[in-house]
UniProtKB/TrEMBL annotation:
Segments passing through the bilayer: none
PANTHER family: ELECTRON TRANSPORT PROTIN SCO1/SENC FAMILY MEMBER (PTHR12151), LINALOOL DEHYDRATASE_ISOMERASE DOMAIN-CONTAINING PROTEIN (PTHR12151:SF25)
Keywords: Copper, Disulfide bond, Metal-binding
Assigned protein family: Belongs to the SCO1/2 family.
One of the record's GO molecular function terms: metal ion binding
Listed name of the protein: SCO family protein
Binding site for Cu cation: C82, C86, H171
Disulfide bonds: C82-C86
Classification lineage: Bacteria, Pseudomonadati, Pseudomonadota, Alphaproteobacteria, Rhodobacterales
Pfam family, one: SCO1-SenC
Length: 209
């Protein structure tokens, strides 16, 4: 009986491996050059994430998505008054950029604010200056920020009903990998380690080169 159970488990494992291999081949045959790199799935596919935009960077310049995403980018939605999660996530993303740079792979860290009322270009400049050279910080009007957050399906809500100055903002904490041409190909959860993020992002960058 035990031997039969072992054989059945072995057969099921083999079927699972074959199914995974078949799915991989199907993606390759469908023209997905990143099939071997993917670790996430989303309703509508990753191509459902993203939108065209014009926002204001930390140098107070109006920039389009085409100008921002002129290289592979680790895109994060956060805010400068965030007490803990945002600085830690942005620091991880910045270190991933450095690891990839050491491997000869160019990318950049980008943060779009979810708190445009307080995150002026000057405030964004002070924030991005704390991280690696080349980080991009983007802000805009309430309407512009709402539209770009909808494009990446990012939920956020300011708790400013009682305090209009020192409020906190709830928001999602995924980081998106956006390729040139504003093409979102993957997202990395907040819990992902620096090493795993760099490895996964590196797979996409190598596949694209």
């Amino acid at each position: 009986m035990a031997e039969r159970r072992i054989l059945m488990m072995g057969s099921l494992a083999a079927v699972a491996v074959l199914a995974a291999g078949g799915a991989f081949l199907a993606l390759r045959s469908a023209g997905d050059e990143f099939a071997q790199c993917r670790g996430s799935s989303a309703g509508g596919g990753m191509e459902a994430f993203g939108t065209a935009f014009t926002l204001t960077d930390q140098e107070n310049r109006r920039v389009t998505d085409g100008q921002v995403f002129d290289k592979p980018s680790l895109l994060y939605f956060g805010y400068t008054f965030c007490p803990d999660v945002c600085p830690m996530d942005v620091a991880r993303n910045d270190l991933a950029v450095e690891i990839l740079k050491d491997q000869g792979l160019e990318t950049q860290s980008v943060m779009i604010t979810v708190d445009p009322r307080r995150d002026t270009p000057e405030v964004m400049a002070d924030f991005t200056a704390q991280f690696g050279e080349g980080m991009v910080g983007l802000t805009g009007s309430e309407e512009e920020i709402a539209a770009v957050n909808r494009g990446w399906r990012n939920y956020y809500k300011a708790h400013d009903e009682e305090d209009k100055e020192y409020y906190l903002v709830d928001h999602m904490t995924n980081t998106f990998l956006v390729m040139p041409g504003n093409r979102t190909v993957e997202y990395f959860p907040n819990a992902m380690s620096l090493e795993d993020m760099a490895d996964r992002a590196g797979c996409f960058l190598r596949a694209a080169s």
